[in-house]
Amino acid sequence: MAELSIKELLGEEEAGLDLELLAGEVGLEKRVSMPRIQKPGLALAGYTTNLHPDRIQVLGSTELTYLAQLSPEKAGRNIANICALDVCCFIITKGQDPPETLIKEAAQRGIPLLRTHHQSSIFISLITKFLEERLLPSTITHGVLVDVLGVGVLLMGKSGIGKSECALDLILRGHRLVADDVVKVRSKLPAVLFGEGIDLLHYHMEIRGLGIINIKHLFGVAAIRERKKIDLVIELVEWEADCEYDRLGLEEETLTLLNIPIPLQRVPVRPGRNITTIVEVAARNQLLKEMGYHSAREFQDRLEQRMAETARLHSHTIIGDNLE
């Protein structure tokens, strides 16, 4: 399961969370594994049964105003009861000053107490989106991910079979590289997979005989993408004379990544076959399938109709001959 430390959350800049640390520095290594947050209104009133300590607790104007209306003893007691549950983190919104009791309890128990200038609704939207992105289930796979006509094509196959060379040829035809060699795959609800490159290898590609090349520098920003939904997996395999390959396109296979099935096509590689063109046509064909048009099935239906019509005419001829 993916996790994120409060220290990483505090240091995040691109998401625009604008967080500052007020207390509880010793607890910055606490981990967050849930993308959902919680506003502990009932817990501040003394009902802590449904409080989830593993979720980030967001305190806005409503919560702080309520605490201010309580007697210092009751407010301190309720805050102490919440902190005793080892909450992973408190975040104060709208740049407000937290009660001294909360600062003291957070410091003593090592619970990070953070503050942001955002309003509660805006901050909850920002942090939820950020956590959903960072805490999505993910895996690493070996292959090349390219955007071909808007279709995310993941090229797979054993090392040296020509995945990178095929991707380079696709780039020369105007398509876009997402990741080469190492593809980080993330799942996103309801059942979608996104692929991206790892930081070290972003925009780079290894071509045997040339070495490492930078696609962004060679072809410009129009030749790359940060991430792409994976719509189709094409596995390049070595041609075997005694192996039967699908010649009609009726056999539908899938590759399962992170429990999500992705359409899979196996393309045999041999001298004389233009693999780049085949991949490009496969992407176009996938677009048609997503629009509800399946060429192979349509051909099969027409063939069966023709055979049925031929059989019907043949039966009528036999019956007519017998009547004579």
From TrEMBL:
Lineage top rank: taxon: Bacteria
Single GO BP term: regulation of carbohydrate metabolic process
Residues involved in ATP binding: 157-164
Region feature (Important for the catalytic mechanism of dephosphorylation): 268-273
Region (Important for the catalytic mechanism of both phosphorylation and dephosphorylation): 205-214
A Pfam family it matches: Hpr_kinase_C
Cofactor(s) needed for function: Mg(2+)
Catalytic function, reaction form: [HPr protein]-L-serine + ATP = [HPr protein]-O-phospho-L-serine + ADP + H(+); [HPr protein]-O-phospho-L-serine + phosphate + H(+) = [HPr protein]-L-serine + diphosphate
Binding site for Mg(2+): 164, 206
Domain HPr kinase/phosphorylase C-terminal: 134-302
Residues at the catalytic site: 142, 163, 181 (proton acceptor), 247
Residue span, HPr(Ser) kinase/phosphorylase N-terminal domain: 5-131
Alphabetized GO MF terms: ATP binding; magnesium ion binding; phosphorelay sensor kinase activity; protein serine/threonine kinase activity; protein serine/threonine/tyrosine kinase activity
EC number: 2.7.11.-, 2.7.4.-
Subunit and partners: Homohexamer.
NCBIfam families tied to this protein: hpr-ser
Name of the protein this chain belongs to: HPr kinase/phosphorylase
